[in-house]
């Protein structure tokens, strides 16, 4: 099984750890995944929430933490592949992208919107770029735009399917359609056909990583059999010793049943997948959750209209305050049974004796 080549580096296993914010995939998890042979990803979403001046100087705290968490990860894995996940929907996206590039990170993965201008934002930096797409339409748009405006193609592409956690690149109606794996498999093939067109045009390989429900050897084999070069996995790394989240957040995965995992409304403007709790039950019934003064985290957000503050909810999650939190998770989070190590998770995905 070949690793994933990103620039002049190559992973031992074809896996990218998905970015999880706020504070779920920071330097410790990303560094450990890179050390164990995958590509580790730090989520830059409100990354400075633990900084003492976060409330008063949110942007500066985040910029400072981007450097701190990268250095933490790089200390764990001096030679591994380490990058950042950036949400296009974030306010100050351009500054955060440049800060991530300035650290010396190997790559930036970007979604929650299409990163149309990312190549221009980080122009001059030696950092590889990967948009996240979920549909044939979004793949067409970003590849055509980068080709026409920037004269380039992505260094690699991440395809996030309907089984992913967190924000999803589908409307609710499309989610129902793509719940049937064979239906989404055809969508993936169409995306890969578009990728091939641009590979031929530029005479250059665009590696692809398929994510969404990758939590078993069978899921890995299914993804690779469709033509993906690697997988992106996130949920299975939450219940690890090295995950940066509070133990109570991890325990919420272990305690969850299949019926507890629901599609929720996010202030970002996209549907998301999370574990149902008291806070989310209140929101699903039309209630509003009082929130702290605006953190100015999203480029488009009206504090008077949102059902809850996503920054507040995700910080509660990272701190283990699980009943007041937005507990993002993938569709298979209920399968978690115990806390493992990152090494165990990767070995089970790629070195399983189950065939």
Task: Supply database-style keywords.
37% helix; globular; single chain; 355 residues; 13 helices
Outline: globular
- Please state how the strands of the largest beta sheet are arranged side by side: 3-11-10-8-7-6-5-4
The secondary-structure element order is: EEEHEHEHEHEHEEHHEHEHHEEHHEH
| Low-pLDDT ranges | none
Query: Which percent range fits the helix content?
Result: 25-40%
The overall average pLDDT, rounded, is 93
User: Could you tell me the strand content as a percent range?
Assistant: 15-25%
Number of helices: 13
Q: Describe the biggest sheet?
A: 8 strands, parallel
In whole angstroms, how far apart are the ends? 14 Å
Annotation, overall tally of beta strands: 14
Instruction: Look at the helices and sheets and give the structural class.
Output: alpha/beta
Radius of gyration: 19 Å
Q: Can you describe this structure?
A:
The protein is of the alpha/beta class and 355 residues long. The protein contains 13 helices and 14 strands. An eight-stranded parallel beta sheet has the order 3-11-10-8-7-6-5-4. The protein is globular and about 55 Å long. The mean pLDDT is 93.
